[in-house]
Protein backbone atom coordinates (compact mmCIF):
# COMPACT_ATOMS: atom_id res chain seq x y z
CA UNK A 1 0.00 0.00 0.00
CA UNK A 2 1.65 3.17 -1.24
CA UNK A 3 0.51 6.76 -1.02
CA UNK A 4 1.66 9.23 -3.63
CA UNK A 5 0.91 12.89 -3.06
CA UNK A 6 1.28 13.74 -6.71
CA UNK A 7 -1.29 11.17 -7.64
CA UNK A 8 -3.49 12.41 -4.83
CA UNK A 9 -3.35 15.99 -5.99
CA UNK A 10 -3.77 15.07 -9.64
CA UNK A 11 -6.74 12.87 -8.81
CA UNK A 12 -8.35 15.71 -6.94
CA UNK A 13 -7.81 18.01 -9.89
CA UNK A 14 -8.95 15.33 -12.31
CA UNK A 15 -12.15 14.84 -10.39
CA UNK A 16 -12.84 18.55 -10.21
CA UNK A 17 -12.28 18.87 -13.96
CA UNK A 18 -14.51 15.90 -14.63
CA UNK A 19 -17.12 17.40 -12.32
CA UNK A 20 -17.03 20.62 -14.30
CA UNK A 21 -17.21 18.83 -17.65
CA UNK A 22 -20.08 16.59 -16.67
CA UNK A 23 -21.96 19.42 -15.02
CA UNK A 24 -21.51 21.63 -18.05
CA UNK A 25 -22.11 19.08 -20.77
CA UNK A 26 -24.25 16.38 -19.18
CA UNK A 27 -26.21 17.20 -16.05
CA UNK A 28 -27.27 20.73 -16.79
CA UNK A 29 -28.36 20.11 -20.42
CA UNK A 30 -30.14 16.89 -19.51
CA UNK A 31 -31.86 18.52 -16.55
CA UNK A 32 -32.81 21.47 -18.75
CA UNK A 33 -34.32 19.08 -21.27
CA UNK A 34 -36.16 17.24 -18.51
CA UNK A 35 -37.44 20.51 -17.11
CA UNK A 36 -38.47 21.72 -20.54
CA UNK A 37 -40.26 18.45 -21.20
CA UNK A 38 -41.90 18.62 -17.81
CA UNK A 39 -42.98 22.18 -18.47
CA UNK A 40 -44.26 21.16 -21.87
CA UNK A 41 -46.14 18.25 -20.36
CA UNK A 42 -47.61 20.56 -17.75
CA UNK A 43 -48.58 23.05 -20.43
CA UNK A 44 -50.12 20.31 -22.53
CA UNK A 45 -51.89 18.96 -19.47
CA UNK A 46 -53.18 22.42 -18.71
CA UNK A 47 -54.22 22.77 -22.34
CA UNK A 48 -55.85 19.35 -22.21
CA UNK A 49 -57.64 20.27 -19.00
CA UNK A 50 -58.74 23.52 -20.59
CA UNK A 51 -59.97 21.63 -23.63
CA UNK A 52 -61.69 19.16 -21.36
CA UNK A 53 -63.33 22.00 -19.47
CA UNK A 54 -64.33 23.61 -22.75
CA UNK A 55 -65.68 20.30 -23.96
CA UNK A 56 -67.59 19.86 -20.72
CA UNK A 57 -68.96 23.39 -21.04
CA UNK A 58 -69.93 22.74 -24.66
CA UNK A 59 -71.50 19.44 -23.64
CA UNK A 60 -73.45 21.20 -20.93
CA UNK A 61 -74.47 23.92 -23.35
CA UNK A 62 -75.48 21.28 -25.89
CA UNK A 63 -77.53 19.47 -23.26
CA UNK A 64 -79.21 22.74 -22.29
CA UNK A 65 -79.93 23.47 -25.95
CA UNK A 66 -81.36 19.99 -26.37
CA UNK A 67 -83.55 20.46 -23.31
CA UNK A 68 -84.62 23.86 -24.60
CA UNK A 69 -85.39 22.41 -28.02
CA UNK A 70 -87.36 19.61 -26.42
CA UNK A 71 -89.33 22.16 -24.42
CA UNK A 72 -89.96 24.29 -27.50
CA UNK A 73 -90.96 21.20 -29.45
CA UNK A 74 -93.36 20.22 -26.68
CA UNK A 75 -94.85 23.73 -26.64
CA UNK A 76 -95.20 23.75 -30.42
CA UNK A 77 -96.79 20.32 -30.32
CA UNK A 78 -99.27 21.46 -27.68
CA UNK A 79 -100.00 24.61 -29.67
CA UNK A 80 -100.46 22.53 -32.81
CA UNK A 81 -102.80 20.20 -30.96
CA UNK A 82 -104.77 23.18 -29.69
CA UNK A 83 -104.95 24.64 -33.21
CA UNK A 84 -106.03 21.29 -34.59
CA UNK A 85 -108.64 20.96 -31.88
CA UNK A 86 -109.90 24.47 -32.62
CA UNK A 87 -109.96 23.78 -36.36
CA UNK A 88 -111.65 20.45 -35.75
CA UNK A 89 -114.25 22.10 -33.53
CA UNK A 90 -114.73 24.91 -36.03
CA UNK A 91 -115.05 22.42 -38.89
CA UNK A 92 -117.43 20.28 -36.90
CA UNK A 93 -119.49 23.37 -36.08
CA UNK A 94 -119.57 24.37 -39.75
CA UNK A 95 -120.52 20.86 -40.76
CA UNK A 96 -123.15 20.75 -38.05
CA UNK A 97 -124.48 24.14 -39.16
CA UNK A 98 -124.45 23.05 -42.79
CA UNK A 99 -126.23 19.85 -41.91
CA UNK A 100 -128.74 21.84 -39.89
CA UNK A 101 -129.29 24.21 -42.83
CA UNK A 102 -129.59 21.30 -45.22
CA UNK A 103 -131.96 19.61 -42.85
CA UNK A 104 -134.07 22.78 -42.59
CA UNK A 105 -134.02 23.15 -46.36
CA UNK A 106 -134.98 19.52 -46.78
CA UNK A 107 -137.71 19.93 -44.21
CA UNK A 108 -139.03 23.00 -46.04
CA UNK A 109 -138.66 21.20 -49.35
CA UNK A 110 -140.48 18.21 -47.96
CA UNK A 111 -143.17 20.44 -46.53
CA UNK A 112 -143.56 22.22 -49.85
CA UNK A 113 -143.59 18.94 -51.70
CA UNK A 114 -146.08 17.52 -49.25
CA UNK A 115 -148.21 20.65 -49.50
CA UNK A 116 -148.00 20.50 -53.29
CA UNK A 117 -148.95 16.84 -53.23
CA UNK A 118 -151.77 17.59 -50.82
CA UNK A 119 -152.95 20.46 -52.98
CA UNK A 120 -152.74 18.28 -56.04
CA UNK A 121 -154.62 15.53 -54.24
CA UNK A 122 -157.21 18.06 -53.06
CA UNK A 123 -157.51 19.42 -56.55
CA UNK A 124 -157.82 15.95 -58.00
CA UNK A 125 -160.34 15.07 -55.28
CA UNK A 126 -162.24 18.27 -55.98
CA UNK A 127 -162.14 17.62 -59.70
CA UNK A 128 -163.28 14.10 -59.13
CA UNK A 129 -165.98 15.30 -56.73
CA UNK A 130 -166.96 18.01 -59.16
CA UNK A 131 -167.16 15.55 -61.96
CA UNK A 132 -169.12 13.11 -59.84
CA UNK A 133 -171.45 15.81 -58.50
CA UNK A 134 -171.81 17.29 -61.97
CA UNK A 135 -172.66 13.89 -63.36
CA UNK A 136 -175.11 13.23 -60.55
CA UNK A 137 -176.66 16.70 -60.85
CA UNK A 138 -176.83 16.33 -64.59
CA UNK A 139 -178.91 13.28 -64.02
CA UNK A 140 -181.05 15.14 -61.45
CA UNK A 141 -181.36 18.32 -63.54
CA UNK A 142 -184.85 19.13 -64.85
CA UNK A 143 -186.94 22.18 -65.87
CA UNK A 144 -188.53 22.06 -62.45
CA UNK A 145 -185.14 22.42 -60.81
CA UNK A 146 -184.39 25.34 -63.04
CA UNK A 147 -187.73 26.90 -62.04
CA UNK A 148 -186.92 26.34 -58.39
CA UNK A 149 -183.51 27.94 -58.82
CA UNK A 150 -185.13 30.91 -60.58
CA UNK A 151 -187.53 31.27 -57.66
CA UNK A 152 -184.62 31.22 -55.23
CA UNK A 153 -182.86 33.79 -57.42
CA UNK A 154 -185.79 36.07 -57.29
CA UNK A 155 -185.97 35.75 -53.49
CA UNK A 156 -182.30 36.58 -53.23
CA UNK A 157 -182.68 39.57 -55.54
CA UNK A 158 -185.47 40.86 -53.35
CA UNK A 159 -183.24 40.48 -50.27
CA UNK A 160 -180.10 41.77 -51.99
CA UNK A 161 -178.03 44.11 -49.79
CA UNK A 162 -178.00 47.74 -50.62
CA UNK A 163 -174.40 47.87 -51.87
CA UNK A 164 -174.90 45.01 -54.30
CA UNK A 165 -178.15 46.49 -55.40
CA UNK A 166 -176.30 49.77 -56.16
CA UNK A 167 -173.63 47.91 -58.06
CA UNK A 168 -176.22 46.15 -60.18
CA UNK A 169 -178.02 49.42 -60.86
CA UNK A 170 -174.76 51.13 -61.80
CA UNK A 171 -173.86 48.26 -64.15
CA UNK A 172 -177.31 48.49 -65.75
CA UNK A 173 -176.89 52.22 -66.30
CA UNK A 174 -173.56 51.75 -68.03
CA UNK A 175 -174.95 49.32 -70.54
CA UNK A 176 -176.06 51.24 -73.56
CA UNK A 177 -178.45 48.59 -74.81
CA UNK A 178 -179.81 48.17 -71.29
CA UNK A 179 -180.61 44.51 -71.77
CA UNK A 180 -180.15 41.60 -69.45
CA UNK A 181 -178.70 38.49 -71.10
CA UNK A 182 -180.26 35.43 -69.55
CA UNK A 183 -178.73 32.01 -70.24
CA UNK A 184 -180.87 29.07 -69.05
CA UNK A 185 -180.15 25.38 -68.81
CA UNK A 186 -183.77 24.63 -69.68
CA UNK A 187 -186.21 26.65 -71.67
CA UNK A 188 -187.95 29.28 -69.57
CA UNK A 189 -191.68 29.79 -69.87
CA UNK A 190 -193.09 33.30 -70.17
CA UNK A 191 -194.18 33.48 -66.60
CA UNK A 192 -190.71 32.75 -65.44
CA UNK A 193 -189.23 35.32 -67.84
CA UNK A 194 -191.63 37.98 -66.62
CA UNK A 195 -190.85 37.16 -63.00
CA UNK A 196 -187.14 37.54 -63.77
CA UNK A 197 -187.75 40.84 -65.60
CA UNK A 198 -189.72 42.19 -62.67
CA UNK A 199 -187.13 41.11 -60.16
CA UNK A 200 -184.36 42.74 -62.18
CA UNK A 201 -186.32 45.90 -62.71
CA UNK A 202 -186.96 46.14 -59.00
CA UNK A 203 -183.31 45.95 -58.28
CA UNK A 204 -181.95 48.00 -61.19
CA UNK A 205 -184.54 50.65 -60.78
CA UNK A 206 -185.75 50.41 -64.37
CA UNK A 207 -187.10 47.86 -66.70
CA UNK A 208 -184.56 45.69 -68.49
CA UNK A 209 -185.43 43.74 -71.60
CA UNK A 210 -184.33 40.13 -71.46
CA UNK A 211 -182.28 38.31 -74.10
CA UNK A 212 -182.94 34.70 -73.22
CA UNK A 213 -180.71 31.95 -74.54
CA UNK A 214 -180.28 28.27 -73.81
CA UNK A 215 -177.10 26.85 -72.31
CA UNK A 216 -177.36 23.16 -71.26
CA UNK A 217 -173.86 23.36 -69.79
CA UNK A 218 -175.39 25.18 -66.85
CA UNK A 219 -177.01 21.84 -65.79
CA UNK A 220 -179.88 23.61 -64.09
CA UNK A 221 -180.70 27.24 -63.40
CA UNK A 222 -179.82 30.51 -65.15
CA UNK A 223 -176.92 32.98 -65.52
CA UNK A 224 -177.89 36.62 -65.93
CA UNK A 225 -175.46 39.20 -67.25
CA UNK A 226 -176.25 42.88 -66.72
CA UNK A 227 -173.38 44.84 -68.10
CA UNK A 228 -170.35 43.95 -66.13
CA UNK A 229 -172.42 42.28 -63.43
CA UNK A 230 -173.06 38.51 -63.52
CA UNK A 231 -175.71 36.74 -61.49
CA UNK A 232 -174.95 33.07 -61.06
CA UNK A 233 -177.98 30.98 -60.29
CA UNK A 234 -177.10 27.65 -61.83
CA UNK A 235 -175.48 24.39 -60.76
CA UNK A 236 -172.49 24.78 -63.03
CA UNK A 237 -171.38 28.01 -61.44
CA UNK A 238 -172.20 26.70 -57.97
CA UNK A 239 -170.04 23.67 -58.59
CA UNK A 240 -167.36 25.93 -59.93
CA UNK A 241 -167.72 28.02 -56.81
CA UNK A 242 -167.17 24.93 -54.63
CA UNK A 243 -164.34 23.89 -56.88
CA UNK A 244 -162.43 27.13 -56.32
CA UNK A 245 -160.02 26.81 -53.44
CA UNK A 246 -160.82 30.17 -51.89
CA UNK A 247 -164.60 29.54 -52.28
CA UNK A 248 -165.33 33.10 -53.44
CA UNK A 249 -168.14 33.87 -55.87
CA UNK B 1 -5.78 -6.34 -15.10
CA UNK B 2 -2.29 -5.49 -14.42
CA UNK B 3 -0.07 -7.59 -12.32
CA UNK B 4 1.63 -4.61 -10.75
CA UNK B 5 2.14 -3.62 -7.17
CA UNK B 6 -0.51 -2.29 -4.83
CA UNK B 7 0.10 1.39 -5.68
CA UNK B 8 0.37 3.00 -9.09
CA UNK B 9 3.52 2.64 -11.03
CA UNK B 10 5.14 5.71 -12.55
CA UNK B 11 4.76 5.74 -16.31
CA UNK B 12 6.51 8.98 -17.13
CA UNK B 13 7.46 12.28 -15.65
CA UNK B 14 5.85 15.56 -16.60
CA UNK B 15 8.36 18.04 -15.32
CA UNK B 16 8.54 17.52 -11.60
CA UNK B 17 5.33 15.45 -11.62
CA UNK B 18 5.54 11.70 -11.72
CA UNK B 19 2.58 10.49 -13.76
CA UNK B 20 1.42 7.08 -12.59
CA UNK B 21 -0.75 4.60 -14.46
CA UNK B 22 -3.55 5.50 -12.03
CA UNK B 23 -3.53 9.08 -13.29
CA UNK B 24 -3.27 7.93 -16.88
CA UNK B 25 -6.24 5.58 -16.50
CA UNK B 26 -8.15 8.36 -14.81
CA UNK B 27 -7.45 10.64 -17.73
CA UNK B 28 -8.64 7.94 -20.08
CA UNK B 29 -11.81 7.51 -18.10
CA UNK B 30 -12.28 11.28 -18.04
CA UNK B 31 -11.72 11.47 -21.77
CA UNK B 32 -14.29 8.78 -22.48
CA UNK B 33 -16.87 10.38 -20.21
CA UNK B 34 -16.21 13.85 -21.62
CA UNK B 35 -16.55 12.62 -25.21
CA UNK B 36 -19.76 10.79 -24.34
CA UNK B 37 -21.12 13.90 -22.61
CA UNK B 38 -20.19 16.13 -25.54
CA UNK B 39 -21.73 13.75 -28.06
CA UNK B 40 -24.88 13.63 -26.02
CA UNK B 41 -24.93 17.36 -25.37
CA UNK B 42 -25.21 18.34 -29.01
CA UNK B 43 -27.87 15.76 -29.82
CA UNK B 44 -30.32 16.62 -27.09
CA UNK B 45 -33.91 17.08 -28.19
CA UNK B 46 -37.33 17.19 -26.59
CA UNK B 47 -38.13 13.99 -28.44
CA UNK B 48 -35.32 11.82 -27.08
CA UNK B 49 -33.25 9.22 -28.92
CA UNK B 50 -32.32 5.91 -27.36
CA UNK B 51 -29.00 7.24 -26.04
CA UNK B 52 -30.65 10.37 -24.70
CA UNK B 53 -33.32 8.25 -23.03
CA UNK B 54 -30.60 6.23 -21.30
CA UNK B 55 -28.77 9.37 -20.21
CA UNK B 56 -31.99 10.99 -19.00
CA UNK B 57 -32.85 7.81 -17.15
CA UNK B 58 -29.48 7.76 -15.40
CA UNK B 59 -29.70 11.42 -14.41
CA UNK B 60 -33.33 11.06 -13.32
CA UNK B 61 -32.54 7.98 -11.21
CA UNK B 62 -29.66 9.78 -9.53
CA UNK B 63 -31.80 12.85 -8.93
CA UNK B 64 -34.57 10.72 -7.42
CA UNK B 65 -32.07 8.90 -5.19
CA UNK B 66 -30.68 12.19 -3.96
CA UNK B 67 -34.20 13.56 -3.54
CA UNK B 68 -35.03 10.70 -1.19
CA UNK B 69 -32.26 11.84 1.15
CA UNK B 70 -31.99 15.58 0.72
CA UNK B 71 -34.59 18.34 0.82
CA UNK B 72 -35.88 19.29 -2.60
CA UNK B 73 -34.13 22.66 -2.75
CA UNK B 74 -30.72 21.06 -2.20
CA UNK B 75 -31.04 18.27 -4.77
CA UNK B 76 -29.94 20.19 -7.82
CA UNK B 77 -27.08 21.74 -5.85
CA UNK B 78 -25.63 18.43 -4.71
CA UNK B 79 -26.48 16.40 -7.80
CA UNK B 80 -23.39 17.21 -9.91
CA UNK B 81 -20.98 16.17 -7.18
CA UNK B 82 -22.73 12.96 -6.12
CA UNK B 83 -23.56 11.95 -9.68
CA UNK B 84 -19.96 12.51 -10.76
CA UNK B 85 -18.82 10.41 -7.82
CA UNK B 86 -21.13 7.56 -8.82
CA UNK B 87 -20.27 7.69 -12.48
CA UNK B 88 -16.54 8.12 -12.00
CA UNK B 89 -16.15 5.47 -9.29
CA UNK B 90 -18.23 3.00 -11.28
CA UNK B 91 -16.27 3.66 -14.47
CA UNK B 92 -12.96 3.55 -12.64
CA UNK B 93 -13.91 0.29 -10.97
CA UNK B 94 -14.93 -1.25 -14.27
CA UNK B 95 -11.75 -0.04 -15.94
CA UNK B 96 -9.95 -2.86 -14.18
CA UNK B 97 -11.73 -5.31 -16.45
CA UNK B 98 -9.95 -3.92 -19.50
CA UNK B 99 -6.86 -5.99 -20.25
CA UNK B 100 -3.65 -4.06 -19.59
CA UNK B 101 -5.34 -1.58 -17.25
CA UNK B 102 -6.07 -1.59 -13.59
CA UNK B 103 -8.77 0.24 -11.77
CA UNK B 104 -7.65 3.66 -10.46
CA UNK B 105 -9.61 2.86 -7.31
CA UNK B 106 -7.13 0.10 -6.40
CA UNK B 107 -4.72 2.95 -5.69
CA UNK B 108 -5.04 4.38 -2.20
CA UNK B 109 -3.91 7.76 -3.47
CA UNK B 110 -6.94 7.94 -5.78
CA UNK B 111 -9.47 6.73 -3.22
CA UNK B 112 -7.94 9.05 -0.65
CA UNK B 113 -8.34 11.92 -3.09
CA UNK B 114 -11.99 11.01 -3.58
CA UNK B 115 -12.51 10.69 0.17
CA UNK B 116 -10.82 14.03 0.72
CA UNK B 117 -13.15 15.56 -1.84
CA UNK B 118 -16.13 14.07 -0.04
CA UNK B 119 -14.75 15.41 3.24
CA UNK B 120 -14.30 18.88 1.78
CA UNK B 121 -17.61 18.89 -0.04
CA UNK B 122 -19.45 17.85 3.11
CA UNK B 123 -18.20 20.92 4.92
CA UNK B 124 -18.66 23.07 1.82
CA UNK B 125 -22.33 22.17 1.45
CA UNK B 126 -22.87 22.38 5.19
CA UNK B 127 -21.37 25.87 5.44
CA UNK B 128 -23.25 26.97 2.32
CA UNK B 129 -26.45 25.65 3.74
CA UNK B 130 -26.43 27.16 7.20
CA UNK B 131 -23.44 29.47 7.44
CA UNK B 132 -19.98 28.98 8.91
CA UNK B 133 -20.81 29.76 12.52
CA UNK B 134 -23.96 27.68 12.67
CA UNK B 135 -22.19 24.83 10.93
CA UNK B 136 -19.24 24.84 13.29
CA UNK B 137 -21.56 25.12 16.26
CA UNK B 138 -23.13 21.76 15.54
CA UNK B 139 -19.81 20.09 16.43
CA UNK B 140 -20.27 21.32 19.99
CA UNK B 141 -23.83 20.06 20.29
CA UNK B 142 -25.45 18.78 22.32
CA UNK B 143 -22.34 19.26 24.53
CA UNK B 144 -18.88 20.70 24.05
CA UNK B 145 -17.45 17.45 25.35
CA UNK B 146 -18.54 15.75 22.16
CA UNK B 147 -16.41 18.04 19.98
CA UNK B 148 -13.38 15.72 19.87
CA UNK B 149 -15.57 12.79 19.09
CA UNK B 150 -17.21 14.68 16.26
CA UNK B 151 -13.80 15.58 14.84
CA UNK B 152 -12.56 12.03 15.20
CA UNK B 153 -15.74 10.79 13.56
CA UNK B 154 -15.22 13.12 10.61
CA UNK B 155 -11.66 11.95 10.13
CA UNK B 156 -12.28 8.27 10.62
CA UNK B 157 -15.24 8.07 8.36
CA UNK B 158 -13.25 9.82 5.64
CA UNK B 159 -10.42 7.40 6.19
CA UNK B 160 -12.85 4.51 6.18
CA UNK B 161 -14.32 5.77 2.95
CA UNK B 162 -10.91 5.73 1.27
CA UNK B 163 -9.79 2.44 2.76
CA UNK B 164 -13.08 0.67 2.03
CA UNK B 165 -13.05 1.39 -1.65
CA UNK B 166 -9.34 0.81 -2.00
CA UNK B 167 -9.43 -2.45 -0.02
CA UNK B 168 -12.38 -3.94 -1.88
CA UNK B 169 -11.14 -3.18 -5.36
CA UNK B 170 -7.52 -4.02 -4.58
CA UNK B 171 -8.45 -7.30 -2.90
CA UNK B 172 -10.71 -8.23 -5.78
CA UNK B 173 -7.98 -7.68 -8.32
CA UNK B 174 -5.49 -9.43 -6.12
CA UNK B 175 -7.77 -12.42 -5.73
CA UNK B 176 -8.31 -12.60 -9.46
CA UNK B 177 -4.56 -12.42 -9.98
CA UNK B 178 -3.89 -15.20 -7.50
CA UNK B 179 -6.57 -17.43 -9.02
CA UNK B 180 -5.12 -16.76 -12.45
CA UNK B 181 -1.65 -17.67 -11.28
CA UNK B 182 -2.75 -20.82 -9.47
CA UNK B 183 -5.66 -22.23 -11.50
CA UNK B 184 -5.10 -21.20 -15.08
CA UNK B 185 -6.30 -19.04 -17.93
CA UNK B 186 -10.15 -19.16 -17.89
CA UNK B 187 -10.75 -19.94 -14.25
CA UNK B 188 -10.88 -16.25 -13.11
CA UNK B 189 -13.85 -15.53 -15.44
CA UNK B 190 -16.45 -16.06 -12.66
CA UNK B 191 -14.35 -13.83 -10.52
CA UNK B 192 -14.54 -11.16 -13.20
CA UNK B 193 -18.32 -11.38 -13.04
CA UNK B 194 -17.96 -10.82 -9.33
CA UNK B 195 -15.76 -7.86 -10.19
CA UNK B 196 -18.60 -6.27 -12.12
CA UNK B 197 -21.00 -6.71 -9.24
CA UNK B 198 -18.43 -5.49 -6.77
CA UNK B 199 -17.69 -2.47 -8.94
CA UNK B 200 -21.34 -1.48 -9.00
CA UNK B 201 -21.86 -2.14 -5.32
CA UNK B 202 -18.75 -0.24 -4.24
CA UNK B 203 -19.60 2.70 -6.47
CA UNK B 204 -23.10 2.77 -5.01
CA UNK B 205 -21.79 2.53 -1.44
CA UNK B 206 -19.20 5.24 -1.97
CA UNK B 207 -21.74 7.60 -3.54
CA UNK B 208 -24.50 6.94 -1.06
CA UNK B 209 -22.13 7.39 1.87
CA UNK B 210 -20.96 10.68 0.43
CA UNK B 211 -24.59 11.66 -0.03
CA UNK B 212 -25.43 10.74 3.54
CA UNK B 213 -22.47 12.69 4.86
CA UNK B 214 -23.56 15.74 2.87
CA UNK B 215 -27.14 15.26 4.02
CA UNK B 216 -25.86 15.02 7.58
CA UNK B 217 -24.16 18.34 7.11
CA UNK B 218 -27.28 19.94 5.67
CA UNK B 219 -30.08 18.23 7.58
CA UNK B 220 -29.21 19.17 11.18
CA UNK B 221 -30.58 22.60 10.51
CA UNK B 222 -34.01 21.18 10.19
CA UNK B 223 -33.68 18.91 13.20
CA UNK B 224 -32.23 21.70 15.31
CA UNK B 225 -34.81 24.22 14.20
CA UNK B 226 -37.61 21.71 14.83
CA UNK B 227 -36.45 19.73 17.83
CA UNK B 228 -39.77 17.94 18.39
CA UNK B 229 -39.87 16.58 14.89
CA UNK B 230 -38.38 13.23 14.10
CA UNK B 231 -36.05 12.88 11.11
CA UNK B 232 -37.69 11.83 7.90
CA UNK B 233 -38.08 8.08 7.32
CA UNK B 234 -35.97 8.23 4.22
CA UNK B 235 -33.17 9.87 6.05
CA UNK B 236 -33.47 7.37 8.88
CA UNK B 237 -33.36 4.56 6.36
CA UNK B 238 -30.21 5.98 4.83
CA UNK B 239 -28.65 6.20 8.24
CA UNK B 240 -29.43 2.56 8.82
CA UNK B 241 -27.76 1.68 5.57
CA UNK B 242 -24.68 3.47 6.69
CA UNK B 243 -24.63 1.62 9.98
CA UNK B 244 -25.06 -1.72 8.26
UniProtKB/TrEMBL annotation, chain A:
Q: Source species, please?
A: Candidatus Accumulibacter meliphilus
Primary place of residence? membrane
**Intracellular or extracellular location(s):** Cell membrane; Endomembrane system
Q: Does the keyword Ion transport apply?
A: yes
Coiled-coil segments:
31-90
Q: Name the HAMAP family on file.
A: ATP_synth_b_bprime
Tell me the keywords, alphabetical order. ATP synthesis, Cell membrane, CF(0), Coiled coil, Hydrogen ion transport, Ion transport, Membrane, Transmembrane, Transmembrane helix, Transport
Its biological function?
Component of the F(0) channel, it forms part of the peripheral stalk, linking F(1) to F(0). The b'-subunit is a diverged and duplicated form of b found in plants and photosynthetic bacteria.
Q: Name one GO cellular component term.
A: proton-transporting ATP synthase complex
Protein name (record):
ATP synthase subunit b
The family classification in the record reads:
Belongs to the ATPase B chain family.
In Pfam terms, one family for this protein is ATP-synt_B
From TrEMBL, chain B:
The answer to whether keyword NADP applies is no
Pfam families linked to this entry: ATP-synt_A (PF00119)
Cellular localisation: Cell membrane; Membrane
Which keywords label this protein?
ATP synthesis, Cell membrane, CF(0), Hydrogen ion transport, Ion transport, Membrane, Transmembrane, Transmembrane helix, Transport
Q: Transmembrane ranges?
A: 24-42, 78-102, 108-127, 174-197, 203-222
In terms of superkingdom, the source organism counts as Bacteria
Give the UniProt record's GO annotations in the biological process aspect.
proton motive force-driven plasma membrane ATP synthesis
Which Gene Ontology cellular component annotation is one that this UniProt entry carries?
plasma membrane
Q: How does it sit in the membrane?
A: Multi-pass membrane protein
| Principal localisation | membrane
The segment annotated Disordered runs over 225-244
GO molecular function terms attached to this record: proton-transporting ATP synthase activity, rotational mechanism
> Function, please?
Key component of the proton channel; it plays a direct role in the translocation of protons across the membrane.
Q: Per the similarity annotation, which family is this?
A: Belongs to the ATPase A chain family.
Q: How is this protein named in the record?
A: ATP synthase subunit a
Q: Which organism is it from?
A: Candidatus Accumulibacter meliphilus
